[in-house]
Write a structure and sequence with these properties.
globular, 12 helices, mainly alpha, about 350 residues
Length: about 350
């Protein structure tokens, strides 16, 4: 590889990182707008309307407001840990997107590019490791705040992540048994050809367990016990204000998005289209004008993650919050046994089919 080729490859990698970073940050900002609008319409109200047309500038206004709000640190807080905690929650959520395959290889101006930053052969383990690290930020925030409410929220988050990462890991094993790889790209490619090849067709139980566990792991309603306002006054981030508080908010939405991306890759075919490619080959798309050869695969991926994200909002508007004992019972006594049984059944079926 010559020096020029090395520079081009480095430039492409940097551009890819910036694109994924901007995609993540813009989504974490505008998914708040999306949620407020969806919940508003579900509850027969309008949601944000006054900041820009239909309130579309509301996330920008919120960001500017938070940047200029006073940053308060409690007198008796552990200041170094208090300052570090929001970054510990946000950074793992952002760098998890390094291995997410948004689409297949595309050709732009005669050069082939991959729509992902890295294809790690342990991509699943990378995602699971980073999702575990994010819990440290919440625990650190709860402990460093020197507040009983914040400490209780941090402890709840730690036990909740531990309880629901186990069923997630177990149902992912059943998917890995079928795909034969830990690479997210290869898992996506194994589901190509038809919607009947998607893992959700063969692993519906695993998909349901993943859905429930993913919602619980991201602390979303009805599993938002670490920040239950009626008993913890917002929980682990109750002592935070301004831009530091927004880091926890951004981390929550970034984690929701990565859970949606993983659901799409593991169960819903990734970038593979819902309808056969031959049905839309003749339809011009924006990509044709920059050399994408009319391949809208990335748009299928984005549509799928937003549809899955919609389920987060739908459940928030529909279900009441669980009690803490119900939360633990659901994880340990129901989801984990179901996930273990699913692995056993998957192994038996694969053995019979191959035999």
């Amino acid at each position: 590889m010559g020096f020029m080729d090395l520079m081009i490859l480095t430039g492409i990698t940097v551009i890819g990182i910036l694109a994924v970073f901007l995609f993540t940050l813009l989504n974490t900002a505008y998914l708040t707008y999306y949620e407020r609008k969806v919940l508003g319409h579900m509850q027969a109200r309008l949601g944000p309307m006054h900041t820009g047309p239909h309130g579309i500038l509301q996330p920008i206004a919120d960001g500017v407001k938070l940047m200029f709000k006073e940053d308060i640190i409690p007198t008796f807080a552990d200041k170094p840990v208090f300052i570090l905690a929001p970054m510990m929650a946000l950074v793992p959520a952002l760098i998890a997107y390094v291995v997410v395959p948004f689409g297949p290889a595309v050709t732009v101006f005669g050069r082939t590019f991959h729509l992902y930053i890295a294809d790690l052969n342990i991509g699943i383990l990378y995602i699971l490791a980073l999702s575990s690290m994010g819990a440290y930020g919440i625990v650190m925030a709860g402990w460093a705040s020197n507040s009983k409410y914040a400490l209780m929220g941090g402890l709840r988050s730690a036990s909740q992540v531990l309880s629901y990462e186990l069923p997630i890991g177990l149902v992912i094993i059943s998917v890995l048994m079928m795909s034969g790889s830990l690479s997210l790209v290869k898992i996506t490619e194994s589901q190509a050809g038809s919607i009947l090849n998607w893992n959700i067709v063969y692993q519906p139980v695993a998909f349901v367990v993943y859905l429930i566990s993913g919602i619980a792991e991201t602390n979303r309603a009805p599993f938002d016990l670490p920040e239950a306002e009626n008993e913890l006054v917002a929980g682990f981030h109750v002592e935070y204000s301004g831009i530091r508080w927004s880091y926890f908010f951004m981390a929550e939405y970034a984690n929701m998005l990565i859970v949606s991306c993983m659901a799409v890759v593991l169960f819903l075919g990734g970038w593979n289209p819902i309808i056969p490619r031959t049905w839309f080959e003749a339809v011009p798309v924006m990509g044709q004008y920059i050399g994408f050869a009319g391949d809208p695969a990335i748009w299928w991926f984005i549509i799928k993650i937003y549809v899955f994200f919609f389920m987060f909002l739908w459940l928030r508007a529909t279900l009441p919050r669980l009690r803490y004992d119900q939360l633990m019972r659901l994880g340990w006594k129901i989801l984990i046994p179901i996930a273990l049984a699913n692995i056993l059944v998957t192994g038996l079926v694969m053995l019979l089919v191959k035999g």
